[in-house]
Design goal:
The chain is α/β, with parallel strands linked by helices and about 220 residues long. It has a single domain (about 5-15, about 20-205), classed as Rossmann fold (3-Layer(aba) Sandwich), CATH 3.40.50. It has helices at about 5-10, 25-30, 50-55, 70-80, 130-145, 170-180; strands at about 40-45, 60-65, 85-90, 90-95, 100-105, 115-125, 145-155, 185-195, 200-205. It has a 9-stranded mixed beta sheet. Helix 3 links the parallel strand 1 and strand 2. The two termini are about 35 Å apart. The structure holds S-adenosylmethionine (SAM). S-adenosylmethionine binds near residues 68 and 107.
């Protein structure tokens, strides 16, 4: 999808993807990553997700990227936060307390924009992108993270004949290709859901240096 598609969606308030509640797969599985307070969490294509506030309340520093100023301003307004807005290169940097959102095209982000992130939270970002955009998305994502970063990915799967994306259905074999070399990719839960009224699954994965039950770390 091009920028206009998403900017128009926000202008028209056609934001069926936005959730008023914190995502249950985030609250269920984020603790597995064992990310200490003060760490930097990258939230690509963040919209105005309230999940960012949940992460911030854990004492994490949230770094979001979002195309739309409407979404970005709404996020801070709904959290009763008054952000400082500063132009930084091709982005407008909105910042309040421990949340920063770079408003602009994620694909234009370069590592010198911010310090390397320690973790990633991707809900409805990869699956919002056309197949041809996904390789560049992963390259940008990795370039903004430290080599030991870990993350939680929430994807969807559905019979592709029944629905037109976004969100796009992405199966494990494709996700394997994108996350190859980024620690260990694990499917940790799939929940029955629906996409545009059709039966679907939401699938949660962890990747990178994921903590296991005994506190030891595996992966890179
Ligand atoms: C499906 S929504 C998901 C939003 C959010 N992750 C959530 O869970 O509610 C995808 C979001 O990505 C944003 N977006 C799309 N392309 C983008 C790009 N190239 N750079 C930054 N944001 C983008 C859209 O404006 C939209 O808010």
């Amino acid at each position: 999808m091009d920028s206009t598609f998403w900017l128009d969606k926000w202008q028209a308030n056609e934001i069926g993807f936005h959730q008023t509640d914190i995502h249950p797969l985030l609250t269920a599985h984020w603790p597995r990553l064992d990310i200490p307070p003060g760490s930097r969490v990258l939230v690509p294509l963040c919209g105005k997700s309230r999940d960012m506030q949940w992460l911030a309340r854990l004492g994490l520093r949230v770094i979001g990227f979002e195309l739309s100023d409407v979404a970005t301003a709404d996020f801070f307004g709904e959290q009763a936060l008054e952000p400082m807005v500063t132009p930084v290169g091709e982005f407008r940097r909105y910042s309040a307390k421990n949340i920063t959102i770079f408003c602009g095209d994620f694909f234009a982000a370069r590592p010198n924009l911010c310090l390397p992130c320690d973790a990633v939270y991707d809900r409805a970002a990869l699956i919002a992108l056309m197949p041809a955009q996904r390789k560049a998305y992963l390259q940008t994502l990795r370039s903004l993270c430290s080599p030991s970063a870990s993350g939680l990915l929430i994807s969807v799967e559905y019979p592709t004949a029944s629905v037109t994306g976004p969100p796009f259905s992405i199966v494990r074999t494709e996700i394997d290709q994108h996350y190859l070399g980024w620690g260990t990719l694990r499917e940790i839960e799939r929940r029955a859901s629906d996409v545009k009224g059709q039966p679907a699954f939401e699938v949660a994965y962890t990747f990178g240096g994921v903590a296991v039950a005994d506190g030891a770390r595996v992966g890179t």
